[in-house]
Amino acid sequence: MNHLTNKIAIVTGGARGIGKAIVIKLASLGCAVAFNYSKSKVEALALQQAIENKEVRCEASCVDIKDFHAVKEWITRVRESFGGVDILINNAGIIVDKALMLMGEDDWRGVVDTNLHGMFNASRACIVPMMKQKCGHIINISSVSGIIGLPRQTNYSASKGGMNAFTKALAKEVAAYNIRVNAVAPGFIETEILAGFNEEQKRQIVEMIPLGRIGSPEDVANCVKFLLSENAEYITGQIIQVDGGLAIR
Ligand code: NDP
Predict the structure, then answer these.
(1) Is 139 within 8 Å of 96 (Cβ atoms)?
(2) From the CA of 13, how far away is ligand 1's center (Å)?
(3) What does pTM read for this prediction?
(4) Does residue 109 surpass a pLDDT of 80?
(5) ∠ at Cα 60 (56, 65), nearest 5°?
């Protein structure tokens, strides 16, 4: 038993990559976990089954994080069937990297709608129940791109910078309700989001990272675990970089 046993967690975009590592971490800590997916049905159902096999409650739902009403319906359904919501991890996100001079409206809107509006949609659906129960955790998976800005990522940097600012504003707004709101800002993490990089590009990335390696999804999940722990009880409104020192300021 630990203080997360039987807590109810919602993870957006939990079927693969960092979201999957977070789902597995939370389940290993004894949380019941609900997560959504949009395209990765096979991976989502396999993960749900793997967690249920460990006798931990888990439910995967096909919900587009961009759709305010669908997200509200999903989270209401999860709250009713699981018995509440204690933890929200806003993880779902995409990149569409292009120089601004080539960026179309769809490239801009797709990224901002998924990363920034998706976080709003899920947070809005969870905040009133968390305020009523006078406790809760929200952790936003942003990016160092939202802190330092990266070329060809104006859409992504803007969405992630927005997530960071949202984190600070909401942390102040709901601290009196015993709700902590933090963000984890990963650097380069080995997931499909890096699939566009070839080996040479990855070698160049590693050269930029003081700790000398690309991160793993578990590195991010471990930070989430810490932020949810009793050791982090006095931490709110922070953007914690998990980047091997890539973006030390
Ligand atoms: P992946 O591409 O591996 O996973 C992205 C996840 O987001 C998938 O589970 C995907 O679900 C989900 N998702 C995307 N669009 C939607 C949507 N419209 N509705 C519901 N779910 C959606 O990426 P990562 O695991 O690497 O990224 C996870 C988070 O971490 C993102 O927010 C990303 O920006 C952030 N991050 C990642 C870094 C990295 O280097 N990997 C660095 C910094 C931040 P599905 O497959 O079902 O569409």
Answers:
(1) no
(2) 6
(3) 0.99
(4) yes
(5) 135
